[in-house]
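ok so I'm stuck.
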Amino acid sequence: MKSPTANSGTKRSRIHVPASVATAALLLAVTACTPATSAASAVSPGGTAGQDAGVPALEVNQAAAQLLPESIKATKVLRVAIPTNEPPTQFYREGTQEMTGANPDVARLIGEALGVKVEIQVANFDSIIPGIAAGRYDMTVSSMTPTAERMKVLDFVDYMQMGSTVAVAKGNPLGLNEESLCGKKVGVLTGSYQLTVDVPDFDKACTDGGKDKIQTNEFQDTRQAVSALTSGRLDAVLADSPILNFAATQNPQIEIAAKYGFAPVGVGMPKDSGLVKSVSVALTTVIKSDSYVKALGKYGLESSAIADARVNFAQ
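replied:
not stuck anymore, here's the structure
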């Protein structure tokens, strides 16, 4: 069955799709560990410092730049929170503290369209929303799904689409998919859509059917969860499709059992801060550019491209 389009407005659905592992052989090797919070490289207006080769720089959208809050106009810096090492969406270049991947590239393109420097701040996913609330970050480009709960404290602008994936041990010995996880030991990332939305939905279906709830195990990154899966401590891992697809290409001990719920993810920023106006205009410029498609294509994420930068469209 065809996945929902980026503009369907449909909540991530429970659609079982035959698994296919996206190729990402062009990616560089990544470091095994990342700090909980750190600063990565920035990009200057009109330049591509930190931007990967092959992605053309964007001209400044003056209308978007004029809409920036006065505080950011004054500093000409946009502090962007991005999660820890999760290839291909974000990871450190081998031997450096420079972040690359689809999310950092999109963040830098937004900065170019706004004519500001982008300062990437690496943080654990579950610390990003509190960090924005505390004023440590101006926004996040972290594959965050715009849920109604998150939209109580953040404004969102769509920038990409992706689904969720069930990863299991090679051969899928338990015959699992997203509809057969009741009572199973399942790894999820702390604060993720899979933990906060999918698991409660699955648990309700389990209890309604007289079965045990999922035995949820939380992890700070997918690498830790996959390690627990391959060591036999978990029956499955739930995470964003690009991340587990890539993990499966790198680890012959796991495979993708199911994919479900294709829907947009958004750039998040403080609620009613005014930043959403400038970012939405900038993202419209980004999405219509060749640079956007090339940035996603470098990481095998062409199918994640969207056509419209919608504002506050809850999933």
